[in-house]
Specification:
It holds the Pfam family Lectin_C. With about 150 residues, the protein is α+β, with helices and mostly antiparallel strands. It is about 20% helix and about 20% strand. Strands 1, 2, 3, 4, 5, 6, 7 and 8 form an eight-stranded mixed beta sheet that branches. Bound molecules: calcium ion (2 copies).
Length: about 150
Amino acid sequence: QHVAQEFTRVSLYFCGPCVAGWKAFEDSCYWFSNEKRNWEAARQDCRNRGADLVIIKSEDEQNFISRFKQDYWIGLNDLEKEGTWKWVDGSPVTLTFWAVGQPDNGNNDPQWGEEDCAHVTGSGQWNDRSCSYPFHWICEKLIILQIL
Ligand SMILES: [Ca+2]
Ligand SMILES: [Ca+2]
């Protein structure tokens, strides 16, 4: 048991808490896609990785995400009921970082169509966009430490 504990401690120190390709931040690992996909396909990719689209729960996490200065799908949509935003894990949306004037559901402009999925923009603020639009995406997985 002592050896197992020591192994965990040493591997966390040298390898970090996340597997290769994932970035650690607080108690989660994050994966940033190189490709662009629609929201549903992006979410499916995260689920295939044992994760889900990122859920932003704090100002620190928002700052971490916005450091990458790119459009990324996040795990937030109002697909079920227009104007009622929900995180993919069903948790309530308490803290938001919408850009000024957003979400606007496409502002009734046929050019944009219905906008039911949320993404972070290059400036880090959130916007709603048609779920069929291809963006990069961020997956998040909780770090579960099992110290034997
Ligand atoms: Ca909408
Ligand atoms: Ca919008």
